[in-house]
Write a structure and sequence with these properties.
single chain; 481 residues; alpha+beta; Immunoglobulin-like; seven-stranded antiparallel β-sheet; six-stranded parallel β-sheet; 8 helices; 30 strands; disordered N terminus
């Protein structure tokens, strides 16, 4: 990354880039500035809290953590939680006084790509802290529990709705795979009421549940159409809704079938994960940059009694062993089931949920938010670069060279703003024809970056131009396919 121009008073600041998604900067006053990739923010919302681990050395009686989203904004205190408290997916700070670690879980705002954090001691003096890492799981939990249900549609609405209610009673998330063409107004209304009570993620499970073979001409209808049906018929809650931009993160593959065409379209539609029917999965999948989403992902096992060949079981001993295996491996326990093969009047279902719920060292989360956390944390890239820089705030408007360059599927374009404002980034071919455009209103000055995907553009030389009011700068990039 190129250095931006400096203000006259230079300071030394540590800057950490996590997987080209986050940039974490320690400012000279011991505050931290965290910058989120603008395109990631827009495409995925990023409204689920991410946990940051800081360490301190002074002996202090109490620590308060504060956040703000604009350089001239007001500081808001972050609610403190104790290690023995039960909480999930909220903004909170937890202090481990034994090891002198501070775990701060906080989400980005809808209007800003930047987050500022500071810490004060019991005397309200600024506390010196050092960033350590982003824990593997929310609040540095030991393991994860997530659950999915397939085939949610009209003829299965009663048991599907009851399943959601049972998970809500246990304060556990259920990701519900909806077959939208089979979902009438009454079922949509019942799903909306269920969603408003919490702990429910709406996932796409196709329009018609097609046979396990290439979708052909129906591909866009089954994938893109299903996602749009969900957005048109449901009002998704805040963590899936950024000022009216609603997010469907999870695709549940009908019959567990996928191919390159399906996976490619999932990336275009900004799905994060393609859940297949593969048992014994206890770790998150890795990011596939060629697809633009995580690799197809399975489940730990199915609960219920199916009439087809599957890993489904009603044996509570087997279900318990599956959970214990994932838990002891510090992994993800992902239980799934079908509405037509689950019987909540039998003891196995409630008994199993009683066994796995309410654990204070377990993160209970929807499947989509599990992968959103992975995306924003940068863990999936397996790339953390740490370097020293002597920049603070840019003194002028400046467009930087893209990286990588040359590039194939996508490239990062960064720029510096001395003041906030609306910018436009335009892309042109050698003939001067406009081939792409990005615009956004940045509420903060400073360093920003977006990821550009050229789509079906052919290989060649292109120009990109950054404009803000009367100011503009142009640079050249090279696309090689």
């Amino acid at each position: 990354m190129q250095k931006v121009k400096l203000i006259p008073v230079l300071v030394i600041m540590i800057s950490i880039v996590l997987g080209n998604v986050l940039e974490i900067e320690k400012l000279d006053n011991s505050q931290y500035q965290i910058i989120l990739d603008s395109e990631i923010h827009e495409n995925y919302g990023c409204l689920y809290p991410l946990t940051y681990n800081f360490q301190y050395s002074d002996d202090v009686a109490a620590i308060n953590a504060y956040k703000k989203y604009e350089i001239d904004g007001n500081w808001d205190i972050i609610s403190e939680k104790e290690s023995g408290e039960y909480f999930n997916g909220i903004e909170a700070v937890r202090v481990d006084s034994v090891n002198k670690n501070i775990y701060v879980s906080v989400a980005f705002a809808t209007y800003s790509d930047t987050l500022f954090l500071k810490f004060n001691d019991s005397q309200n003096d600024l506390l010196e802290v050092n960033f350590v890492d982003i824990p593997k799981y929310y609040d540095d939990r030991k393991a994860v529990v997530t659950a999915t249900i397939d085939d949610v549609q009209g003829w299965m609405s009663d048991v599907s709705i009851r399943s959601g209610e049972i998970f809500q009673e246990h304060e556990m998330w259920l990701t519900m795979g909806i077959v939208t063409a089979g979902t009438g107004d009454d079922t949509w209304s019942r799903l909306q009421s269920l969603i408003e009570k919490g702990y429910i993620e709406a996932a796409a499970h196709s329009r018609t549940h097609p046979s396990p073979e290439p979708y052909g001409e129906a591909l866009k209808s089954e994938v893109s159409g299903c996602k749009q049906d969900i957005i048109d018929n449901l009002t998704l809650p805040r963590k899936f809704n950024k000022s009216g931009h609603e997010y469907v993160y999870t695709w549940i593959a009908p019959h567990g079938y996928t191919d390159n065409e399906i996976d490619s379209l999932l990336g275009v539609e900004d799905f994060l994960v393609n859940r297949l029917y593969i048992p014994d999965a206890i770790q998150v999948a890795e990011w596939d940059s060629s697809l633009g989403h995580f690799e197809p992902y399975g489940m730990t096992g199915e609960m219920g009694n199916t009439s087809w060949q599957s890993s489904a079981t009603t044996d509570t001993t087997v279900l318990k062993e599956r959970f214990d295996t994932a838990y002891n491996a510090d992994g993800v326990y992902h239980v799934m089931f079908h509405p037509q093969s689950i019987d909540w009047d039998q003891k196995y279902g409630p008994s199993h949920l009683d066994y796995i719920d309410q654990r204070k060292d377990v993160w209970y989360v929807s499947l989509g938010h599990l992968y959103l956390y992975e995306l924003v944390s940068g863990h999936e890239y397996n790339e953390t670069r740490v370097y020293l820089a002597d920049k603070k705030h840019p003194e002028q408007f400046e467009l930087h060279q893209n990286y990588p360059n040359p590039f194939n599927s996508s490239t990062i374009i960064s720029f510096s703003l001395n003041k906030p404002g609306k910018v436009e980034l335009s892309f042109y071919n050698l003939a001067g024809q406009l081939v792409g455009k990005y615009s956004s209103n940045f509420r903060t000055g400073g360093f920003h970056k977006i990821r550009w995907k050229p789509g079906n553009l052919p290989s060649g030389v292109y120009f990109y131009k950054l404009s803000k009011g009367s100011q503009s700068q142009t640079k050249k990039l090279l696309l090689q396919k």
